[in-house]
Amino acid sequence: MKNIILSMAASILFLAACNNETKKKETTDSISATTVDTASKSQQNSPIHNIIRAYLQLKNALAKDNDKDAASSGKALEAALAGFDKSSLTAEKAKLYEDIATDAKEHAEHIGANVGNIKHQREHFETLSQDIYDLVKGFGAGQKLYVDHCPMYNENKGANWISESKDISNPYLGQSMPTCGTVKEELQ
Amino acid sequence: MSGIKKILLGLLVILIMIQFIHPARNKSGQGMPNDISKMVAMPGDVRGILKKACYDCHSNNTDYPWYTYIQPMHWFMNYHIQSGKEELNFNEFGAYTPRRQQSKLRSIENSLKDGSMPLSSYTLIHRNAILSEAEKSLIINWVQTSKDSFKKESLTNP
Prior knowledge:
Chain A: Residues 51-143 form the DUF3347 domain. The complex is a heterodimer of chains A (188) and B (158). Chain A contains 6 helices and 3 strands; from the N terminus they run αααααβαββ.
């Protein structure tokens, strides 16, 4: 009997140890993701500058076909969306933010969780880009931004994204067609 | 007894003990005021497909297969149901904001096209949840119609 109890304890410990390890890994992962590029604080005159910066990082990672950087930017974006301070907003603006951010957070989370599946990351990026566009419309960009359009993505259905530079760098088709697309609109 | 034998025996005892622990089952039986079928017309064939291939994890009512009565299978299933409902719950669809409804419909379409849903680990055992190309395009067409009708609705009463 004693033997059985002892060996049960041993197996439980063994199982618990495995669990612990995965948890620890997750926390260090999220810490490193949130500290990505906090150094460049050039554009701060918009309340959502952190969100825009993380989105642009994500866009640039996708344009380079880099799923790993896309995932870490996705996590940084998720953190920026969650960390946004709504206390100074009017009730109406807070509601607008909540509506957009709830959706955007889900997309950012999926992008963060899909290393190795850049196709899936891009699908979420497409809807996310609409959310970011609406956020910029509602809260201002604080910098010059361009709305770009790629007519070929998704079996020629087309898709939009937001860029900080006038030159086209396509996040949907990546390095296979880096300059496909046109500027549709300029945001300030 | 050797060490390995002891650990195996310990695991066996744990396996027997967990048979007595079961999480609550995902069966609501309540009326569903926020069900997606209350918002958009859902033809019988669409409903049938969704029910057999999606609702086990994406609704408030799961049709439990026999093996989930054996632990730890029930825990695995429970985990799938929880994360599935968190992503998308057809019974709660009406409670989402119009933005999320559009987003979810788009994701349904994408995951069917990519073949990421229904999960292959699920269809491995639920063979009848494997969707034929015809069934997939039926759902995709229905999703596209629904997307348009929701869009019109959210424009008329924002």
